[in-house]
Design a protein that fits this description.
single chain, mainly alpha, 76% helix, elongated
Length: 161
């Protein structure tokens, strides 16, 4: 395996000034996709009147805000906006919290003799939210690392000039 020379590393860092941070942005889009999978899976469940509550209404509103905030952040990290990483970290943490709100309660709730949410559906909801959270957190961390590298490179250019 060939190691990179100092010149190659310099070129790679200098290139960051002109190329978008598409890896972080794509991770945000992936998080949105898995959130949509969760959204569709959860809200197509229809067990009597269990899902007709104010909690589901609040969940729908939260989901819309989540989608808008993550999309905005994906555009921000695309242009190396470090502050958007905080939004992504909070959104990732909230995705983890969401696992224990509706899916966990629905999985433990019983109407008649059946559970409201089957084990298989709960597992899929858990996976969708966990993957979405992981994508957001990884995107935020990667964005901070890349922003720091770019800032250091720009400072080094200023000192040489």
């Amino acid at each position: 395996m060939k190691t990179k020379s100092a010149e190659d590393l310099y070129i790679q860092k200098d290139r960051m000034r002109y190329v978008k941070n598409s890896a972080c942005s794509n991770l945000c889009y992936l998080a949105i996709l898995f959130d949509v999978f969760y959204f569709v899976l959860l809200y197509r469940q229809d067990v009597e009147t269990y899902y007709y509550t104010i909690q589901i209404g609040a969940s729908i509103v939260y989901n819309l805000i989540f989608l808008l905030a993550v999309f905005l952040s994906s555009e921000g990290v695309k242009h190396y906006g470090k502050n958007y990483s905080l939004i992504l970290l909070v959104a990732g943490a909230m995705q983890v919290v969401r696992i224990f709100v509706i899916p966990m309660r629905a999985h433990n709730a019983v109407i008649g003799e059946a559970t409201v949410m089957s084990g298989f559906t709960f597992t899929k909801c858990f996976i969708y939210l966990a993957v979405s959270a992981a994508c957001l957190i990884f995107s935020a961390v990667l964005n901070v690392i890349r922003c720091n590298q770019l800032e250091a490179h720009i400072k080094s250019l200023g000192e040489k000039a």
